[in-house]
Amino acid sequence: MEGPKVSYRCNVRQYFNEEMLTYKEATTLSSFDDALEELKLLKENGKYTFVLIPEGEVVDPGDRGYIGRHRSAFLRSSKDLASLVSKISGVMREIFAAEKVIAKAWNTAVGAVHQQADKDSMRALQSQPNGYEITFTLLNPQPSHVRASWNIQEATKRYLSPLLSALHDYTNIKVKSQYLHSTNIGVRPKVDQVGGYALNIDQLPHIINPIEAFLGSHVSNNPNLNFILYIPLRDQSPLFIYNQNGEKVASNAFLSPRWGGFLVHNVRVEENASLPVDVQIDERPVMQVFAAQLRLLLGVSPLHHGLAVEEAPAGNAVITDWELDLWLRSHCLENLASSVATLNSLAQLLEKIGNIVINDDIGREVERAVEQIQISHTALSQGQLRDAYLSSRQAKQFSEKAFFDPSLLELLYFPEDQKFAIYIPLFLPIGIPVVMSVLQSLKYLRKKNKQKME
């Protein structure tokens, strides 16, 4: 299947007076980027600005260039137009549009076979029209020794609300929290060389299963992402996670693809301390780790472009504006590819099983899906990224609703070749006496006709 085609439209202009005023007042490229965003001259998804700055200025981007947190790139102006155009093209295609990323998203959605393992696509959740659920769990196996508490509601508001607000118009994310006591990870750590305890990389997959049954993530039909803060047992503390090279993991955490994250939080308990020890969790380093893991699980992965350009970190925003555009673009293509594949599967199913009756409700869902696919295509071609994504999300909902309609599922397990296996045991015992009676009647009639002729 042919991949997505990307086209660009560009124009060149002089600066506006408001932009020049902010430029003169800026002391750093970051502050200049934020000031341009406040002007609200360009806030549409999928539209970007390249600002060319002369060499030697206060906010000189240098030879490398600078990618802001919003939708602007800052490059040093040059008389070598060919080199400048090449750099602009590289930033546009490799970072803002990320053609390789969206091509990968399309190929993954249509079922193309990758030449090599793709960690990013295997790690991130697929696009979900109904949204996601996030559960933060404080796992304390020894509440009799450590009485831990955290203000997860305030921490979520402070450190994750920018990300949740950015995605609010495009997906529904519900956040929950819970305490889980007297439940251990079920893995025996090994003693390390410095007197602590170690969890090796081969032990990490066995940590999830013993605790998953207690997390309650099965109560929802939506995908659930679990983020666990684990306080080790007193006789297994301090506990550290080691990577495949035998080195300590700096974050003391690991990520489970499409499931969530796990963070070990060591608590120091003195020998003669009165038990239980009250511990107030410092949420800031914890949420920094969980926010980084959440980015990866939602598909906001670092770009491997190889360009010598500086990128502004997302900071407290968790996700930059151009990363949000990339997320919308790749998930839009994923939704469209999934919708088309679902409708094609439905058509093939109808050709294979001819006795399926399509009722009016299914027909309307198919028509709505096709309509939303066409609307999304049109919006994409016009650069209306937000509208394109919302239409693609509806297309996926309508196509899946049509394919999984209960009236179709009833007939999927009753094909033509199984009718004989069902009906023969019912009618064969009745049919044999009937056939024998018919044969006896025919013999009698023939014999009677023969006697009359004689």
UniProtKB/TrEMBL annotation:
Pathway: Glycolipid biosynthesis; glycosylphosphatidylinositol-anchor biosynthesis
Homology family: Belongs to the PIGS family.
Native organism taxonomy: Eukaryota, Metazoa, Spiralia, Lophotrochozoa, Annelida
GO annotation, cellular component aspect: GPI-anchor transamidase complex
One Gene Ontology biological process: attachment of GPI anchor to protein
Protein name: GPI transamidase component PIG-S
Principal location listed in the UniProt entry: endoplasmic reticulum
Annotated compartments: Endoplasmic reticulum membrane
TM segment ranges: 420-442
Membrane topology: Multi-pass membrane protein
Keywords: Endoplasmic reticulum, Glycoprotein, GPI-anchor biosynthesis, Membrane, Transmembrane, Transmembrane helix
